[in-house]
Amino acid sequence: MRRRRDEADRRRQYVELTDEGRAVIEDDRAVRNAWLEAAMAERLTPLERDVLLLAAPVLVKLADRDPGPRTGGSKADAKPRE
Q1: CA 27, CA 37: separation in Å to the nearest integer?
Q2: Cβ-contact 18, 5 below 8 angstroms
Q3: Please, what is the Cα angle at 77 between 73 and 82, to 5 degrees?
Q4: CA–CA separation, 67 vs 78, rounded Å?
Q5: pLDDT (tens digit per residue) in 1-49
Q6: Which helix (H) or strand (E) element contains residue 66?
C-alpha cells in the first residue's frame, strides 16, 4: 500500500494499493476460490450446487442494496466510504 497526502487539504491522506499489494490480493483470492471449488465438489450434491448457482444473484442483489441509515446494525450494514 502507498499513502499520499492531498496537496489541497493536507489533513486528508489517500491510500492506494500498489501493484505488489494487488498481486497479493489476487493470489489470496485464487487460493480461496480453489478451496471453495474443491469444497463444493467434495461436499455438495449436484442439486445443492445448482441451488447455490440459482441463489447467487439473489445474494448479490441483497449485498448491493442501499442499507439506508444505520440503526445499530453490524459493520456489514455500513455504507462504503467515498
Answers
A1: 15
A2: no
A3: 130
A4: 7
A5: 899 998 999 899 999 999 999 999 999 999 999 999 999 999 999 999 9
A6: none
d(CA 39, CA 33): 10
Instruction: Yes or no: say if 58 and 66 are a contact pair by the CB < 8 Å rule.
Output: no
pLDDT at 82 over 90: no
Report how far apart, in Å, the C-alpha atoms of 28 and of each of 14, 62, 81 are.
24, 25, 24
Count of all residues that appear for the chain in the document:
82
For the segment 49-54, the average pLDDT, to the nearest whole number, is 96
So what's the pLDDT on residue 10? 86
pLDDT for 81 beyond 70:
no
Which whole-number Å values give the CA distances from 7 to 18, 25, 28, 50, in the listed order? 20, 29, 34, 52
